[in-house]
Design brief:
Order of helices and strands: HHHHHHHEEHHHHHHHEEHHHH
Radius of gyration: 23 Å
Strand order of the largest sheet: 1-2
Distance between the termini: 53 Å
Number of strands: 4
Strand content: under 5%
Oligomer: single chain
Largest sheet: 2 strands, antiparallel
Structural class: mainly alpha
C-alpha cells in the first residue's frame, strides 16, 4: 500500500504533458489565431470598395495591442537598435507620402495598412517568437492553413466549383473567392517553401520524422499550387526552391531536383491533371510580349501609368491611395475598364483595376523614391541578416532549416511583388511571413538552441 501511495504521489508531482505544451506555446496563440482566421471564407458579395478589413485583420490588430500591453507591463526595451531601424524604415516613406498626398484624409487608411503589414505585425512577432521551437510552431500553422486551403482548392478543381478560368469554374482559390485569386496561391506557396526549408535542414534538434513529414507536406502542396493557375506564384516558387536547394548543398539539390521532376511528370503528364491548360498557362509566360492577352496588356498599361506618376512626383509620389485617382490621366486607351470574376460561390462581378499589380511600382508611384528606398531597403536588410545567420546554422546543424525556410520566404515575396501588391484577405499573411523573417534575422533566438521562454527572456535581456 505504501508503495502504491508513493507511486500515486510521484505521478501527481509530474506535470501533465499537455499542460506543459499549452504553457509553452500559449504566448503564440494570438499569432496562430491570425493565421487560422484566414480560413474564414471571404465575402461573396463585393461592392467594389477597397481597403475593407477581415476578421484576420482584426485579429492582427488585437495581436499588436496585446504586445503593447505586454511591453507596458514589462517596462523593458522591446527591440534592439538594429531591429528598430530595419522595421521602422517603412515609416519614413509612408509618413512623407501621407503628408504630401493630394488628399491626406484619403491616405489615412493606406497609412494604417502599410504600418500593419510592414511594421507593427512583424514587430509583434519579433517580440513573441523567442526561439526556434516557437518559429517552427508558427510556421507549422502556416503550413496547416496551406494544406486546408489547398485541399479545398483541389476539390474546387475536381468538382468545377472554383473560380472561372478559360470559361470553366476550375481555378483553385480556396476560401478566398474569385476576387482574391492570388490568396490561395500565396498561402500554398508559403507552406511549400516552409516545408522545403525544414526538409532540407539537417538539424540535430529536429527529429528525422519531422523532416519526412515536411517533405510529404511539400508534395501535397505542389498540386494545389499548380491548380491555382497563378503564373506569378509559379515563378516565385520555382526561384525560391532552386535557391533553397542550392543553399542546402549541390549534391542534395541534384537528388531532390530529380525526384521533384519525376513527381511533376507523374502528376501533370502521367495523370493528366490539367495538363493542357497548365501547358498553355506555362507557354503564356513566354508570350507576354509576342501575343499578350488582355490581362497582360492591362498590367503593362498600369505599369506605364505608375511610372508616369513617379516622373510627375519623383521624391514623395502622388500620395498613398493616389494611384486610382491618377490612373486614368496617365494610362493609355489600351487599359480596359476592369477584370471579370465569376465562380467559387460568387456571381459575375466586374472588378476595377485600382493598382498596377506590382508592389515596387505601386510604392514608387504613391511614395516616390523616398518610399521605395525605405521599404525595399528594409526588406533587403532582413534578407542580408538572414543570410548572415545561415553559415553558422549549417556548421552547428542547429537552425539550418529555419534559415533556409526564412530565406526562401523572403526571396519568394521579393519576386512575387513584381507581379502582385498588397490587397485582399491574404495580405495579413504577408505580415506574418515578414515577422517570421525578422524573428530569425533579428531576434535573440537566432544563435541559440531551443529553450524555454524563461531562458530566452534572460538571453534577450543581455542582447
Amino acid at each position: 500500500m505504501a508503495a502504491a501511495d508513493a507511486l500515486v504521489l510521484t505521478d501527481r508531482q509530474q506535470p501533465f504533458p499537455w499542460r506543459e505544451t499549452l504553457r509553452r506555446y500559449a504566448p503564440l496563440l494570438p499569432v496562430v489565431a491570425v493565421v487560422a482566421l484566414l480560413a474564414v471564407p471571404a465575402p461573396t458579395e463585393n461592392d467594389g470598395a477597397s481597403g475593407t478589413g477581415t476578421v484576420a485583420d482584426a485579429a492582427s490588430g488585437l495581436l499588436v495591442v496585446h504586445c503593447f500591453v505586454m511591453l507596458l507591463r514589462q517596462r523593458a526595451r522591446p527591440l534592439t537598435r538594429t531591429a528598430a531601424v530595419i522595421l521602422g524604415l517603412p515609416v519614413v516613406g509612408v509618413s512623407a507620402a501621407a503628408v504630401t498626398s493630394y488628399d491626406p484624409a484619403v491616405s489615412l487608411p493606406g497609412v494604417a495598412r502599410y504600418l500593419q503589414i510592414f511594421v507593427l505585425v512583424p514587430a509583434a512577432l519579433l517580440l513573441l517568437v523567442r526561439d526556434r521551437r516557437d518559429l517552427r510552431f508558427v510556421a507549422g500553422s502556416v503550413v496547416a492553413l496551406g494544406l486546408v486551403q489547398g485541399a479545398i482548392g483541389v476539390v474546387q478543381y475536381l468538382t468545377a466549383t472554383g473560380a472561372s478560368y478559360m470559361g470553366k469554374d476550375i481555378r483553385a482559390v480556396g476560401t478566398f473567392g474569385p476576387t482574391d485569386v492570388m490568396g490561395m496561391a500565396t498561402v500554398v506557396a508559403y507552406g511549400l517553401v516552409i516545408c522545403a526549408g525544414f526538409a532540407l535542414g539537417d538539424d540535430h534538434d529536429v527529429p528525422r520524422g519531422q523532416r519526412t513529414l515536411a517533405t510529404v507536406c511539400a508534395g501535397l502542396l505542389f498540386l494545389p499550387l499548380v491548380l491555382s493557375f497563378s503564373r506569378g506564384a509559379w515563378i516565385a516558387t520555382a526561384v525560391a526552391l532552386v535557391l533553397q536547394l542550392a543553399l542546402s548543398g549541390l549534391r542534395r539539390a541534384a537528388r531532390i531536383a530529380l525526384v521533384a521532376g519525376a513527381l511533376g511528370v507523374v502528376l501533370v503528364g502521367g495523370l493528366g491533371i490539367g495538363s493542357q491548360m497548365i501547358t498553355d498557362r506555362l507557354d503564356s509566360i513566354t508570350q507576354v510580349t509576342a501575343a499578350p492577352d488582355q490581362s497582360v496588356t492591362d498590367r503593362y498599361t498600369m505599369w506605364a501609368a505608375a511610372t508616369d506618376m513617379w516622373r510627375e512626383e519623383p521624391v514623395t509620389g502622388v500620395g498613398l491611395k493616389g494611384f486610382p485617382a491618377y490612373r486614368d490621366s496617365h494610362a493609355s486607351l489600351a487599359l480596359s475598364s476592369g477584370s471579370d470574376t465569376d465562380g467559387a460561390g460568387a456571381g459575375f462581378q466586374r472588378q476595377p483595376l485600382l493598382s498596377p499589380h506590382n508592389m515596387y511600382l505601386l510604392v514608387l508611384s504613391e511614395q516616390g523614391l523616398l518610399g521605395i528606398v525605405a521599404l525595399v531597403g528594409s526588406w533587403a536588410a532582413l534578407l542580408v541578416c538572414a543570410l548572415r545567420r545561415l553559415p553558422g546554422a549549417r556548421r552547428s546543424r542547429t537552425g539550418a532549416g529555419c534559415a533556409i525556410a526564412v530565406v526562401g520566404l523572403l526571396v519568394w515575396q521579393l519576386i512575387d511583388f513584381s507581379y502582385a501588391d498588397i490587397g485582399g484577405p491574404s495580405t495579413v499573411l504577408t505580415a506574418v511571413m515578414l515577422g517570421l523573417a525578422a524573428c530569425w534575422a533579428l531576434g535573440p533566438m537566432r544563435d541559440r538552441p531551443s529553450a524555454a521562454h524563461g531562458e530566452s527572456d534572460k538571453g534577450a535581456a543581455h542582447a
